[in-house]
Amino acid sequence: xxxxxxxxxxxxxxxxxxxxxxxxxxxxxxxxxxxxxxxxxxxxxxxxxxxxxxxxxxxxxxxxxxxxxxxxxxxxxxxxxxxxxxxxxxxxxxxxxxxxxxxxxxxxxxxxxxxxxxxxxxxxxxxxxxxxxxxxxxxxxxxxxxxxxxxxxxxxxxxxxxxxxxxxxxxxxxxxxxxxxxxxxxxxxxxxxxxxxxxxxxxxxxxxxxxxxxxxxxxxxxxxxxxxxxxxxxxxxxxxxxxxxxxxxxxxxxxxxxxxxxxxxxxxxxxxxxxxxxxxxxxxxxxxxxxxx
Amino acid sequence: xxxxxxxxxxxxxxxxxxxxxxxxxxxxxxxxxxxxxxxxxxxxxxxxxxxxxxxxxxxxxxxxxxxxxxxxxxxxxxxxxxxxxxxxxxxxxxxxxxxxxxxxxxxxxxxxxxxxxxxxxxxxxxxxxxxxxxxxxxxxxxxxxxxxxxxxxxxxxxxxxxxxxxxxxxxxxxxxxxxxxxxxxxxxxxxxxxxxxxxxxxxxxxxxxxxxxxxxxxxxxxxxxxxxxxxxxxxxxxxxxxxxxxxxxxxxxxxxxxxxxxxxxxxxxxxxxxxxx
Lengths: 293, 277
Description:
The complex is a heterodimer of chains A (293) and B (277). Chain A is mainly α and 293 residues long. Chain A has one domain: Orthogonal Bundle (MetI-like fold), CATH 1.10.3720. Chain A contains 12 helices and 2 strands, in the order αββααααααααααα. The longest helix of chain A is centred in the first third of the chain and has 35 residues, at 3-37. The two termini of chain A are 41 Å apart. Chain B folds into 2 domains: 6-54, no CATH class; 66-274, MetI-like fold.
């Protein structure tokens, strides 16, 4: 055997296991999900259903309603993540005292399981004994305790708020790292020219961060639109479907409605939406440089 | 130099502290509630401190509810996933960066796609396959399912770390007569240790915090992991919030402490790729 052939074989031995494993745990289940989306199961009999499941999903008002909720939820969360993330990063970037401790403290919501974080918020928002109602009432902001998860509009706002609480730290961390790559002398030159704080932000910080902000928001859209845990734990899609984003609709269709074919079809449609953003994200970042998880 | 103005600094600190209180308050309330006796949970107004703080709720949760078991389940599944993913990933990262450097890029694109798959779609085939194989409620099924999101992530990150180790080192080892395996184990792995630690930590974090997979793949209450055990308590007829918050502390605080101490590794791992334009 020639040297290069041997070398190639050794290479296969190193990468082979991961390749096979990824096929087993990702590619095969994904293919099986497609297969499920094309079949209908009634009792023990599984029959080929063609595009029936897709037709049913796409003609069902629940799907379009859910898509609308998903768009609103993702839009609201991503905008607020970016806005608060940027503000916090700008504030923290100027602080020298207790830098690491502050950063760790701000990261805590992101270190906790979303399902556990959502559970803590269920207690905070509890209508009768929850501390949020108590604090708002004792400061005169509300007259009577609110059922935060009881009415459609409030429930939507509540799950957005919890997702913002959880999502901001990560964006903040990315922007903070980005801020540190902006050359210090640009600011000093601007200060000598008499630029104020707003002008420095507008003409130095923002242009330098533009790429990072686009990358971070695309990534955030992908992560938010497919997220299940927070809404799954807090409202399971209710009340009256007000928080039923696509992943929650999918879960409810499969595991509450026992309609796996239709759920898989919804999942494939969700995958297509995610894929559009993923392609955009990958073209943007160039895989050699990679991107955040 | 940009002039520093004291009142601007003061305003900045005030804003940071307000934000900090809003971010951290839920955790304070979690700990506060978990330490209260049952009789003080439904007091109005609620107490921000109590002279009756005790660890009773923790004792109840760990002895009369299966949370010690859930902790063990979480630990077994998370450690299993981490060891499996990082080991396989180390081999693959070495293989791709040393043997197929040009093949690494399409492979990374593939990994990025798999990282972005909606988990709600994948749990459907996982549930059907595992139930038809009779593997629901097994560590095996959970570790396999967890590696579907942990493995793409670990491989992707480790390739980045292995790329930063110069190939000259491999050449030098080869000239000294080392085999490929010797080079990998004795030369490259020790050099990649910071990367391995960071990736292992991050894999541990995402696996520990995962919820949906275990929710679907465990139907037997003794096989739940912590996140599922905590969230399930919400559905009980009369929720004992002090016990529920004690369970949340048990689920959340160990990882929070672990990662606070290792924050630097974690932050480097997360931001290394994203900020390079």
